[in-house]
Queue: 3 jobs
Job 1
Amino acid sequence: MKSKMLLFSFIVIAVLGCNKSSQPQDPSDSAPVMLTVGHVGHDHQLALFVAALEGERFKKASLPYLKEVKPREVYELIENGKKLALLRFVKVGGGSRMPAAMTRGELDIGLGGVAAVAKFADKGQPFKIICPLQTDGDMLVMRTGSEINDWDSFVAAAKNGKRPLKIGYKAPTAVAKLVFVGALKSAGIPFSQNPADKNARVVLINMMSEKSPLPLLESQAIDGFVMHQPPVAVAVHKKLGKVVAELRDLPPNGKWVDHPCCCVSATVKTLEDHPDAVKALLKCIILATKLIQDNQGTAIDCASRWTKNPREVEVMSVPTISYLAEPTDSWISGMKTWVTLMQDTGTFKGKYATISPDNFIKDICSLELCKQAYEELQSSGALKK
């Protein structure tokens, strides 16, 4: 980490040095702030990658944009011709790894799962969710050759099979795992994380990595897994797994539709110290989300370029994800579903353990800059009202 920070410092010095003009500087001009942005690297967070890869498109339209300094790592954040920030992108692991990096002071802004961010905020970490990124895009996958082809046959196999089904998940706070646990409870299927539990009809196995499903399926260490895209599409592409259900369709009926998954979060200090830069970044994410919604071909191309997955994988993945950057009523409702689920599963141990859904939203979310970004883009004509 120290070597990367040193490299970033050299890049910053070079960029700021190259940007010095021979003309006298306006005393009111200040140097751009330096912010570190953490992401997981998969296509649930595609809006950030589209903003980075399509910066020239937004620049030509006289919109806020990201200018590449070092591919995939360093970008200038520019609005109205002014460099507001120098952004350093850092790929971190999924689950709790992103908010853990924020806790260590390694990140100012982080893209990751709402459940993981909320769990850290529950412990008292000064984090806020400032913008949604997408909903859905989580699947139940079974090994190729399995007789299970849909949720009904999964329930039947779990309840009546000769042995428990072994289902992998990425991390304890992974959204897909939490939805799946809720569905198992709704279907009356006993489950456990202890393989020795004789009452369990589903054994949950922590795979601890996005790369684990393929070897575990191949070795038959698991019968299937629940996870986000694109690892699901990768398993299908390699003919090791098949999708038997989208988690949005699991019971209770309608509860998981448009379930919030990834979001943009930030430390309170970042929001207090650099609101203009954060708002400009949110504008880039909002504009990129609009491009994803309007031009799926470009979205798929960007996803493949950034994730390095074959285009065929992203063709299967991107259309299953609902990208949005606006805190809609539906998204707020989904967030309230989350707090209830996490309370029911005993995930929260701190201030959120008994909080009401409305007060949870007030505490975990800081959506003012996102709303302002939307309003300013609409007023400028960049977005339709």
Job 2
Amino acid sequence: MHEPHPVGLLVEDDYRRNRLTVAFRLILAIPHFIWFFLWTIWVVLTSIVNWFICLVTGRPPRWFHGLMCGYVRYQVHLSAYIYLVGNPYPGFMGEAGEYPIDVRLPEDPVKQSRWKILLRLFLTIPALIVGAALAGSTGGNVSGGSSGRRSRTTGFNGGGALLLVCGVLGWFASLGRGRMPKGLRDAGAYSIGYTAQTSAYLLLVTDRYPNADPTEMLVSVTDRPPRHPVRVVGDPYDLRRSRVTVFFRLLLAIPHLIWLALWGIVVLLASIVQWFVTLFRGTPARGLHRFISAYVRYRLHVSAFLLLVANPFPGFTGSPSVYPLDLELEGPQRQSRWKTGFRIVLVIPAFLVDTALSGALVASAFLTWFYALVKGSAPWGLRNLSAYALRYDAQTNAYLYLVTDRYPHASPLEGEDVPTE
């Protein structure tokens, strides 16, 4: 649809993690915290000067461009190390090619629109909202330097929802297995990549707006996760949105929200019966499986409508192949009894990731509402981010309600069939 973003994430990580450095990761990073704080102060001050020069010349001076690129690259390396997206100890200068999680940046300063330079801080606000949901202020997003009015630094204050959850869960997994789970690694890398694009835009490294599309962000990741039995399907290129229904979307969704709540109560009771059946037989009852599957699919349809991921008013039955954003579910399959017995405990990590992704989903819907009212369409990147969040939510619910015993996969990448020998 468009040219690749000039700020691209490069991922060459092999998932292996050193248990000893994982256990003491925050302590080992203390020198970096100090250095990052000092470097951020310097970047804030120099970005003000850079902003004035860019207003006059239309492009950053080469020295300022190199400084900002080094800072953006260093925050990628440091974030990857802190949140276990990468394993080696990073360097202190943000040099290209020295870390398995890296970022591709424009080598030379580019000509930029002066009006975009003038309003850069305000134009960045939507990207900062999405970035806060994905990675908080990780990497020390600098605000105010490009406005010329005032400056402040958010610093490295613990990260945001998705990246923080992936880092915490990955810490336990890496201590136990010596490997970072692929889903958590990919989700964390995506969060870091979006933060890098936002910082590069704010610091005048590029005038290309950050792209929230997870697939494009992770284009360098060649190994996709296995195909999941719960899959979101539909036409991703239909971005048209009715301005009238967008404006009244919340009111129009009220009947669905009431019906969804009532249906959810019945599904909760049915899932308890299904739990005993599956624990005894090893296979879910077909009738209950069909009933619960329809609820999970209906939940996706309602969420897609309410949150502007799709446009038409959905039906009330959760029937397959009737909505532009649909859910494919496999029939009842044999399930592990021990996974069934401890399902409510096993689902907790997935629930944490799902909750973190819901923040990005709400932020995307909020921004899409304004965008669709003006342009009559949804932005490509936010639509794909929302579809990723809805897919993971559907997989989490399908796992919780015993539709499948395949664990939700946190990777933003679509799964592919794994060849069998």
Job 3
Amino acid sequence: MSKPKYVVNIDDVNGLSVQEKKDLKKVVEKYAFRANEYYLGLINWNDPKDPIRRLVVPTMEELNEWGELDASMEHKYSPVKGLEHKYRDTAVLLVSDVCGAFCRYCFRKRIFMRENQEVTRDVTEGINYIEKHPEITNVLLTGGDPLVMATPKLEAIIRRIREINHVKIIRIGTKMAAFNPYRIVEDDSLTDMIKKYSLPDKRIYVINHFNHPNEITEVAEKAIQKLHNAGAIMCNQTPMIAGINDNPEALAGLFKKLSFIGVPPYYVFQCRPTAGNKPYAVPIEKGHQIFMEAFEKCSGLAKRARFAMSHATGKIEILATDKKNIYMRYHRAADPRDYKKFMVFKRNPEAYWLDDYAEYASMKKELQTAGT
């Protein structure tokens, strides 16, 4: 299936009934829908619980009131349009406001809305900012998905970043190997570009986004191998999503299959409390239990991921639980003083986010009061 056709109208999804299409129009009016023939073709339409269906086809529960559009307050860390600088050595460039398909649980779904002002077609201001900040050694290209862009446009951005000597790592955050691997398999100019700019001392990392083992098809494996051969360093991150990978067998299956094709698991994220995401969220403590049970089924090479929460204050790793407490630490912190923080909270099986723990909520209130 070369260059699969994009599907942006819910009426064009053949596996849905007339009534389902009618009902789901209410959802897609609020949260955009996008898929393609290849990815929809992975769905077993006879299985209402098919994980690929759940990943890309809307559900009415998305209309339940819950969360915020910018749950991690990314806007707070945007010194210039299209760039985020939350952690000292890493800058994030939002280079695209489109993906190969739209994950229903997306934490950045706000950029697919008409009023979005965060993504810019001209990254000059962002690159100028990076040039002026020698502490930045890593630049992540994301969006949206950078591989939706034509290769010449993407290369123009990467070329400019490579001219900045203090930037040693360029990361491309993409789900294209899952959503449309033909984009990679059939475009030699893309891998030629990676060969050109992924240097022995300045690598290009491809941060893949496989969520379920069913996404790792034969053609997806070819795409991964082609990126490997071009000199890209590979890894994978995924949120834990209800109905997709929130059981030890599915998560362990994902970890194992990724390790077999040479894509080390990197992060498993707690689903952010983003508006529309309630049906996809798993409580933190249940998620940690699933994560640890999945680890029990894997070899060492398959269990290199960290279970983390991308909170407004930083990436917080969920380390362990016992009968009374849950234990966390800052893996990355917006405020360098937080790096040493090790946090112990009384367990709350209903907690979906750090703010749901009473001790943290109390501490946050005290800090806000002290600042007034």
